[in-house]
User: Which sequence fits this backbone?
């Protein structure tokens, strides 16, 4: 594999906001996907007092080949977690909160009820804060999906992660058609709530396969797509096949906007929640304009 290109090198910025946020997360025994998934944008986002909360513990029941989150069998369910997340959102003063989770296939509803409780808890303490949830596929349990949608998040996010041809190789238990079906059903349940998905590149897909995945998302009424470069977290994980260029990311963004996405975030360091506060505004403005 060639050396990491310049456009993927990240500068370390550990200011007071970063240190304060880290201390607060530990004091409330909260987890963030920023840390667990080794996100390259953690220094930028935490310095700006934004973070993606990871609920339902830090042990995932799946072992996707790209993900750095610990895998195994979770041993407990923390019913007080939603309130602690809401308290942290209040202390941080965030305007747009993002909540994700590990996969909890050991739970009958996949953790959907905790997602719903977290949405409601954040809204109760922070009525002006918008809430985005990044959910697993709940193994196709559409009643569980309805529990989340009935709590009315401002954005429903579920990642397809990669193109159809590579999905079984890259993801554990998740199925490409099931992910598309989830996104479609979410829109059917709450048509006014924007839906969102993410694609990582550099794992063996072709340029045209990314376009095809984007067309699949639009065919299932997805409003927002993010596209970013896969970075191998450890030597045990899926290897990087290639580094995509900034020009390719710009081209995918142009194509996505032409397809009708309300917002396309596409770049080497882009992750699902990167600039999420801007995405919700774009999607809501687009939906209002279409309604008129």
Assistant:
């Amino acid at each position: 594999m060639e050396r990491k290109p310049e456009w993927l090198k990240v500068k370390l910025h550990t200011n007071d906001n970063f240190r304060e946020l880290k201390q607060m997360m530990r004091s409330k025994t909260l987890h963030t996907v920023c840390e667990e998934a080794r996100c390259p944008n953690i220094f930028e986002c935490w310095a700006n007092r934004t973070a993606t909360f990871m609920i339902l513990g830090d042990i995932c029941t799946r072992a996707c080949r790209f993900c750095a989150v610990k895998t195994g069998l979770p041993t407990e369910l923390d019913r007080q977690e939603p309130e602690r997340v809401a308290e942290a959102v209040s202390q941080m003063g965030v305007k747009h909160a993002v909540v994700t989770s590990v996969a909890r296939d050991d739970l009958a509803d996949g953790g959907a009820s905790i997602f719903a409780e977290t949405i409601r808890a954040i809204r109760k303490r922070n009525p002006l804060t918008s809430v985005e949830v990044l959910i697993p596929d709940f193994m196709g349990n559409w009643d569980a999906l309805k529990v989340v949608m009935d709590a009315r998040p401002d954005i429903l996010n579920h990642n397809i992660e990669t193109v159809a041809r590579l999905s079984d190789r890259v993801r554990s238990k998740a199925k490409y058609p099931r992910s598309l079906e989830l996104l479609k059903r979410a829109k059917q349940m709450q048509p006014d709530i924007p839906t969102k998905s993410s694609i990582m590149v550099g794992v063996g897909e072709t340029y045209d396969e990314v376009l095809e995945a984007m067309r699949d998302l639009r065919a299932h009424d997805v409003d927002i797509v993010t596209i970013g470069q896969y970075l191998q977290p450890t030597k045990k994980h899926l290897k990087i096949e290639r580094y995509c260029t900034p020009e390719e990311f710009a081209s995918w963004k142009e194509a996505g906007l032409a397809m009708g996405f309300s917002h396309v975030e596409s770049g080497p360091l882009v992750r699902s929640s990167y600039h999420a506060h801007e995405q919700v505004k774009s999607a809501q403005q687009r939906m209002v304009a279409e309604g008129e």
